[in-house]
């Protein structure tokens, strides 16, 4: 999970040339285009900590003013290209600009920021906002938590940088479950996630399926990767070729883990396997708003790749791309250039591919589609967590979160999702051995540049002054500032802030993906019957009420059968979820019951149509209702009010519209919009 960024080094005069060559390359800045040959090996400036202290000393030139070899995006280059007013710009501020800035002097509680503190401090300083490192007696506008929503329990207003339940949802088992449910409905759209089995509960299934495969083809040499449920940084991961090789703990029980099909033919560069870390901002759940950072990091293995064989299965430096593992390899290449070494920018990789004729626009748009689909798979359960922690009527903050997507490119360039990190490292220092055996934290200019960019842009997007109605009209935050400030101040305000490194992708591409949001509609029904008591599980009476209000029982499906269904499914899920806090039917169990009811009722149609038909039926039965004392009050939590879902998904008319909204390019954003290359 460790991540470090390296910026390509492109002098400004190269901008036009590289922009032309790269077209729609991601990247925060013109610098994200790969370096010109003459500048490729120029070193980054290095700043070392005071020997022996371990304390990082920051050079004043790290942030602004002085151009540096690798530090050419926002803070440095941004400052050169759009000098921050009042700091070396030499430009007098107009009263209007000052007034706007004063009006938006946002307060940020950084007392729980942990390892992201350094990057956060720099971002706040650049924005000229107010930091409260020890917390504040009165409320702050923004609370920055290092780990989870619950780092500070007493927040009743403002915005927190974590969603309740995100850590839980992104554990490997839960992510696999969420994607798998979507695969049941949309197998083609969700084929970017490797086939996975959940251990220990699916051990038998896994063993049987593999045996059958091997029996049918004895030359089959499939490999599997086993990942501990809550592991990170490659810890506890191993490869196997036979179910019998699964490592047991404490006797015969296999640890909670995901065992996954191993991608045997990854794309290689310099004969090495690599993966991609991308930062994604979920700005809001309802309405759903997603941004993707235009620059990412490619992390390379340190031993040439060979397809798995019994001999090389244990070679972690060949098969696992984690920085935290490969840093310990003698072959790890620390490079100050951004297109060589064991850590490179994703844009430098893309540029290299482009030079070999690869359609990198397609690669990038496939990645955007993967990110949107993954978030869509997570949203239903996140809504349940949200309502449990901040029930309607209870004062509470709103939430946003930066996620770290780990993506592998296959040899055929198809992106594959490996995992999503709820807490991607935002450290801007890295450990360095300054003398044999002596390690110190040393500032990493490239990490600082990219991560500060992501955090600063996230803060800007969360600026309370900008929390306007969602960007349905496609207005960017810069546009929003323009509207607020009035046309006279436009130029100066836009000039005062670097362009955003975060690219809005949802609701921008809403039309192409909304048809996938079926589970969200099922979750809306679930929430409606859950009530507002801060619970996450449906009791038997509420389940009965759901059946009755949706008019789903009849002579062949009596209320007694309903109770049996409830008990049966709930028991099974209670066994599967070892960490379940309360008894009852959770959303995943409810979805299973819903799918079962759909298959019973609409026997002749394919599974997806069955579920959509049942949804229509339930939604029309519930439409206009809502006064039933046992159902959820019609005045729901503003943040979760399904009536506010932009596409008004829960009306039958909208449902019919949805069904006709067939994915033009099967969830591919390639053809939809050729974006001009932006710089920041
Ligand atoms: N299905 C897979 N096929 C091939 N390689 C994989 C697969 N899953 C993971 N890896 C490799 O293992 C590394 C660690 O896996 P990941 O799921 O990211 O767990 P962690 O949380 O430990 O980083 C990845 O960075 C990648 O190099
Ligand atoms: Mg990882």
Topology:
Blueprint: H1 15-22, H2 74-81, H3 95-103, E1 107-112, H4 117-127, E2 130-132, E3 142-145, E4 159-160, H5 166-169, H6 172-185, E5 196-199, H7 203-216, E6 224-228, E7 238-240, E8 257-261, E9 268-269, E10 272-284, E11 289-293, E12 297-300, H8 316-319, H9 323-326, E13 343-345, H10 346-355, H11 360-389, E14 398-399, E15 401-409, E16 415-421, E17 429-435, E18 438-443, H12 445-462, H13 477-485, H14 490-496, E19 502-506, H15 510-513, H16 518-530, H17 540-549, H18 559-576, H19 587-601, H20 607-622, H21 652-660
Parallel strand pairs: 1-2, 1-3, 3-4, 4-14
Antiparallel strand pairs: 5-8, 6-7, 6-8, 9-10, 10-11, 10-12, 10-15, 11-19, 12-13, 15-16, 17-18
Bound molecules: adenosine-5'-diphosphate (ADP) and magnesium ion.
């Amino acid at each position: 999970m460790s991540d470090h960024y390296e910026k390509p080094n492109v002098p400004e005069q190269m901008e036009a040339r590289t922009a032309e060559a790269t077209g729609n390359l991601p990247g925060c800045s013109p610098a994200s285009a790969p370096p010109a040959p003459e500048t490729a090996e120029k070193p980054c400036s290095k700043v070392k900590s005071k020997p022996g202290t371990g304390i990082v000393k920051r050079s004043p030139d790290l942030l602004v003013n002085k151009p540096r070899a690798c530090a050419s995006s926002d803070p440095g280059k941004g400052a050169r290209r759009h000098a921050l007013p009042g700091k070396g710009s030499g430009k007098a501020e107009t009263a209007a600009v000052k007034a706007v800035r004063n009006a938006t002097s946002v307060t940020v509680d950084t007392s729980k920021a942990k390892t992201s503190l350094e990057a956060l401090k720099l971002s706040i300083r650049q924005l000229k906002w107010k930091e409260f490192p020890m917390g504040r007696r009165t409320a702050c506008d923004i609370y920055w938590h290092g780990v989870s929503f619950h780092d500070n329990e007493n927040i009743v207003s403002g915005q927190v940088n974590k969603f309740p339940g995100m850590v839980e949802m992104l554990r490997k088992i839960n992510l696999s479950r969420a994607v798998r449910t979507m695969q049941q409905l949309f197998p083609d759209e969700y084929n970017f996630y490797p086939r996975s089995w959940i251990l220990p509960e699916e051990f038998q299934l896994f063993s049987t399926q593999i045996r059958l495969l091997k029996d049918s083809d004895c030359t089959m040499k499939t490999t599997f990767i086993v990942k501990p449920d809550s592991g990170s940084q490659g810890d506890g991961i191993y490869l196997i070729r036979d179910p019998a090789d699964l490592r047991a703990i404490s006797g015969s029980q296999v640890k909670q883990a995901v065992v996954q099909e191993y991608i045997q033919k990854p794309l290689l560069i310099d004969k090495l396997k690599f993966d991609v870390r991308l930062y994604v901002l979920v700005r809001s759940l309802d309405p759903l708003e997603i941004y993707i950072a235009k620059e990412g990091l490619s992390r390379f293995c340190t031993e040439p790749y060979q397809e798995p064989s019994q001999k090389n299965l244990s070679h972690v430096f060949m098969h696992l791309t984690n920085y935290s593992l490969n840093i310990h390899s003698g072959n790890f290449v620390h490079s100050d250039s951004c297109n060589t070494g064991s850590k490179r920018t994703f844009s430098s990789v893309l540029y290299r591919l482009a030079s070999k004729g690869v359609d990198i626009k397609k690669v990038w748009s496939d990645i955007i589609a993967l990110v949107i689909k993954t978030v869509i798979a997570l949203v239903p359960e996140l809504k349940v967590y949200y309502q449990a922690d901040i029930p309607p009527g209870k004062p509470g903050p709103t939430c946003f979160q930066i996620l770290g997507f780990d993506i592998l490119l296959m040899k055929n360039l198809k992106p594959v999702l490996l995992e999503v990190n709820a807490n991607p490292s935002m450290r801007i220092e890295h450990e360095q051995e300054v003398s044999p055996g002596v390690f110190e934290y040393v500032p990493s200019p490239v990490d600082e540049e990219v991560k500060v960019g992501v955090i600063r842009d996230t803060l800007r997007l969360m600026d309370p002054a900008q929390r306007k109605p969602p960007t349905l009209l496609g207005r960017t935050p810069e546009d929003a500032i323009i509207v607020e400030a009035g046309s006279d101040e436009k130029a100066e305000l836009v000039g005062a802030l670097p362009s955003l490194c975060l690219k809005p992708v949802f609701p921008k591409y809403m039309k192409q993906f909304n048809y996938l949001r079926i589970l969200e509609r099922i979750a809306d029904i679930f929430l409606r019957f859950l009530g507002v008591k801060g619970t996450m599980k449906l009791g038997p009476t509420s389940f009965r009420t759901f059946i009755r209000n949706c008019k789903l029982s009849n002579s062949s499906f009596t209320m007694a059968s309903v109770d049996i269904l409830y008990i049966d499914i709930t028991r099974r899920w209670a066994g599967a979820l070892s960490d379940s806090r309360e008894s009852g039917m959770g959303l995943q169990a409810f979805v299973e019951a819903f799918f079962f009811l759909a298959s019973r009722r609409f026997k002749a149609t394919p599974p997806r149509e069955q579920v959509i038909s049942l949804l229509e039926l339930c939604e029309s039965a519930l439409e206009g209702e809502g006064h039933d004392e046992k159902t959820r009050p019609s005045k729901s939590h503003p943040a979760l009010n399904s009536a506010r879902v932009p596409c008004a998904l829960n009306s039958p008319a909208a449902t019919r519209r949805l069904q006709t909204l067939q994915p033009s390019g099967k969830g591919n954003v390639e053809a939809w919009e050729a974006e001009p290359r932006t710089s920041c």
